[in-house]
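Hi support team,

I've been running sequence recovery on a batch of backbones for a student project. Most finish fine, but this one hangs at about 90% for roughly twenty minutes before it completes. I'm not sure whether the input is malformed or the queue is just slow. I've pasted the structure tokens below so you can try to reproduce it. Let me know if you need the job ID as well.

Thanks,
M.K.
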């Protein structure tokens, strides 16, 4: 009987460790914003800060005609961790936002996965956006560059003010968009931007992680 109990203990311990290994945490903001996150300013500065709400700590972003991002450099093999999971919330969508036009290339919330190339013009990104006019699930090239692709995970005002849990198979998305297997992910970025529309937006982000097979 003793040996059976020991075997069962080791078996379930192995399962627990295996389950842990299948989650690659990116950021939960439990201890504030880690210094590994670097700000990239494009036009004006979106205000990012960790705040407390009813669900715990989260990153709050406030943009007023600004465009800056927080970028975390991290190498990730999508063949091991293909699924990106996160939750987010927006206070509003951008009335003039339209992912198909340069003048509308603003998003109340977006998370993007960066695939760097030594020759920068060949760097690719997949942008998961909270869109305005783009239908949910639609995929379009960014109006400024075809190497950045926008996917409307959420769209419109139906879920404004509510936390939404999301997940995307980035490996499958990359293959569908670019027709080949991806290189290693080089970075993850968070961005709330309103510079092209001249509007204002507030969003919250939390629980970014990659999930294994």
């Amino acid at each position: 009987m003793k040996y059976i109990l020991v075997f069962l203990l080791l078996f379930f311990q192995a399962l627990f460790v295996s389950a842990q290994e299948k989650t690659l945490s990116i950021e939960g903001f439990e201890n504030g914003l880690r210094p590994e996150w670097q700000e990239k300013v494009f036009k004006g500065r979106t205000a990012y800060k960790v705040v407390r709400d009813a669900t715990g700590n989260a990153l709050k972003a406030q943009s007023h005609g600004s465009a800056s991002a927080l970028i975390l450099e991290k190498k990730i093999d999508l063949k091991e961790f293909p699924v990106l999971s996160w939750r987010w919330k927006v206070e509003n969508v951008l009335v003039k936002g339209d992912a198909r036009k340069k003048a509308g290339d603003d998003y109340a919330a977006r998370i993007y996965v960066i695939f760097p190339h030594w020759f920068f013009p060949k760097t690719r990104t997949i942008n998961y956006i909270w869109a305005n006019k783009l239908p949910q699930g639609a995929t379009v090239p960014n109006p400024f560059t075809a190497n950045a692709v926008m996917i409307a995970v959420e769209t419109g005002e139906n879920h404004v003010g509510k936390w939404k849990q999301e997940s995307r198979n980035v490996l499958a998305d990359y293959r569908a968009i670019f027709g080949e297997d991806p290189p290693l992910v080089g970075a993850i970025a968070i961005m709330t931007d309103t510079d092209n529309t001249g509007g204002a937006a507030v969003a919250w982000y939390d629980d970014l992680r990659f999930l294994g097979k």
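--
Follow-up from support: It reproduced on our side and the slowdown came from queue contention, not your input. The helical segments are 2-21, 170-178. No action needed from you.
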